[in-house]
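Posting for a labmate who doesn't have an account.
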Amino acid sequence: MKIFHVTEVFTPFVGYQEILLAQEQIRCGHDVTILARNFRSAAEPEYAGSNSNNKTISPGRTKEAGIDIYRVPAVHIVGRAWLKGIANVLDELKPDVIHCHAVMQYFSQCVAWYKKRHPSVRLVYDSHNQGTRIHNELPHRIGRWIGAKILGLLESKDICYVGITSECCRLMIDVYKVPPERVYMIPLATDHLWYCPDPQRRNAFRRKLGLDDKDYLVVNTGKILPAKRLDILAKAIAITRPKVPTIKMIQIGGGSKEHAQMIERTIEQLHVEDVVTMVPAVDHRDLADYYRAADICVWPGTVTTSMIDAAGCGTALVVTAAEGVEYQVSNDNAIVCRDKAEAEELADAIIALCLDDSRRLTLGRRGRELAEKRLNWQEVAKGFQELYEGRFDNQYRWHESQITLSETRCDIPRRHD
């Protein structure tokens, strides 16, 4: 099957669905091509320190991460992207399936027009937008209204719309006006064969980090942004330290100098600079060593796919009840604090797991089970394959009774005064 992915950003260094799903589809024997803008992230080592004006690369056809890539220029109007030359590439490749990783971009409408002219082509839209991630300024609302009208005119009964969470699906129905019967939910996943427990690598990497058996390591990964609430995590570590004197923390990620410096100042003000280490962004596959070395992985802010990767490594999680977290913790594999929990609540969760080895290991084991049985790219690829083949009446069809956080049975920690 000839599968054509369309996405605005393709950054192999970071690792995300459009990369890992495409790699799995290639392993299954499909002919896979990705079209993306000629842009690379400044988080990557070869672009480190670059500014917003010099991250572009030459357009053209390349091979990246083992995948055929078309890099094309992009034009942005009111926050939406038009990928130049997309129609020419489609006419050249003549795909069986178009997998579009956005619903309301201008290139989303272009592939719908191509589908209108080539009815036999399967078209799947894949949206990761949730209610907290959309802009509500008037130009953006007008743009969504126009986009929904255009997609409605180009509608076909065999077009599928996939969200990664229930919130994504609800947004497509309520805001994008997508017919509910054509909405499916397929969550994100992990490469469970790479992100897996390995006691020998764990011990070796902990020695490399200068840790001994008495140290408890907390790991957080991801781009440094206010929504990640890393200042709250630093405060939680400061609260935890008197009760767990051997606590250590490592944060791996990149971000603007302004945000990074703000977090560094917070760490200094809390007098935890001797136990909290900030590490620049690394290739996503290198994060497996950090997850294995960790005793607990903590994310106090917005949801990230890193939660699933850490769970795959068998590491206990502490997260908050942020929008979209349900599936990452759906095997009772985390302590779930309240959304936007304060530092004291996070500290209680960290302390609880440091003082209870059995509970910590149990959460880690359940996380690994979740990755092996459900949240891995093999299972996700099977779900999309059913849609590509026109098998629409399947287990992934979204409905109102999808899993909610209350069904995960994860608990808020007790105080440890």
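Reply:
Got it, the structure tokens are right above this. The domain at 2-185 is CATH 3.40.50.2000 (Rossmann fold).
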